[in-house]
Amino acid sequence: MATKQYPLEPKITLEQALASAPPHLREKIEESVQIIKKAEPLAMEYNPEKGFNVAFSGGKDSMALLWLFEHLDVKYHAEMQCTTIDPPELMAFVREVYTSTGRVRLNLPPRYPDGKPVNFLTELEKTGAPSPDTRWCCDIFKEFSGKGEVVAVGLRTAESARRKKQNPTPLKAFGGKKTFFGTKLHPKEVGEHSVVKKAGKKFVKHVDLFDIDAQTILGCVSGAEKVMLSPIWSWTDADVWSLIKTFHLPYCKLYDCGYTRLGCLLCPMSDVKTRIRDAERYPIFVKEYTKRIATFFKHCSPERKEKFKDAEDFVEWFIYSGESVDKFHAKKDYPKLFDDGVQE
């Protein structure tokens, strides 16, 4: 029998939690509870049998999100999508604390026509590396889930400058392979359910579902409407860690190794420091990643290679640079121009 790495999570009711929580955390919990409760009728309308779909990743935000649902009398089912490039320590944590206990269902990747499971590295050598603008990996492994459901997600404004500018939450409508961003919900402007309006190059979907201060994102997956709900949208990092520490929740040990956010290895949405940490911790994965990029470079169009000499050149830029390709190569070709004390 495998040795347990993580302590058991103490059992506590919501009332006990609110009574023992610091004042600021108590306010955040109560705010999120109201958001979930207000969305409950809609979740039950979409999926009367299972209610909410709680999107789980094993990171701190989804832990806080799931904790809220576990302490409420609402129907829900928690699911995690396997991407095939999640850190092994994260998967070990999820299996021990969440999936083996029935708290979260782990959905395996889709399969190819021959029955073999879809794998990130296989797709990498076919499609090339994902980027912030072309995250084909999310399309394959994550965004297909939640069809016809209200999906609760752990998005927070504190995670990025872009989200902080959203006031307070944008409407998000999916159209084919593209994602169109709209504006705040205006329930009184349209009739029941949804109306799609075209304004210039943007599609805005207004939905008369409920007014929740725009704490919802509307979308469409494979032609079926879904609603994405962000109950902890206003929580800070400190709020999330306050909940984890106050209620003694076990968390993935990678957070004690310098990581502040957990996700797919070498994710294009992560910062340079995180990608460098990934590369140092998982050198075998980086070697395989480079090998698959080399295969892609053999058959891709010249434009896809951009200005890279080879796969190693691309991977070095992708992991360590964080700058434009031109500046990256300029620093390599003319290092003295970029020495400390010399203006660029």
Task: Summarize the structure in words.
The strands form three sheets. The protein has a six-stranded mixed β-sheet, with helices on one face. Helix 5 (120-127) runs parallel beside helix 10 and helix 10 crosses helix 12. The longest helix has 24 residues, at 23-46. It has 344 residues and is of the alpha/beta class. It folds into two domains: 14-240, Rossmann fold (3-Layer(aba) Sandwich), CATH 3.40.50; 271-338, no CATH class. The chain is 39% helix and 15% strand. Strand 2, helix 4 and strand 3 (105-107) form a beta-alpha-beta unit. It has helices at residues 14-20, 23-46, 60-70, 88-99, 120-127, 136-141, 161-165, 237-246, 272-281, 283-299, 302-305, 311-320, 325-333; strands spanning 52-55, 76-81, 105-107, 150-152, 172-175, 178-181, 193-199, 202-208, 216-221, 224-229. The model is unreliable at 167-224 (pLDDT under 50).
Quick synopsis:
Helices cover 39% and strands 15% of the residues. It is of the alpha/beta class. Residues 167-224 have low confidence and may be disordered.
Outline the secondary-structure elements.
Elements: H1 14-20, H2 23-46, E1 52-55, H3 60-70, E2 76-81, H4 88-99, E3 105-107, H5 120-127, H6 136-141, E4 150-152, H7 161-165, E5 172-175, E6 178-181, E7 193-199, E8 202-208, E9 216-221, E10 224-229, H8 237-246, H9 272-281, H10 283-299, H11 302-305, H12 311-320, H13 325-333
Parallel strand pairs: 1-2, 1-4, 2-3, 4-10
Antiparallel strand pairs: 5-6, 7-8, 9-10
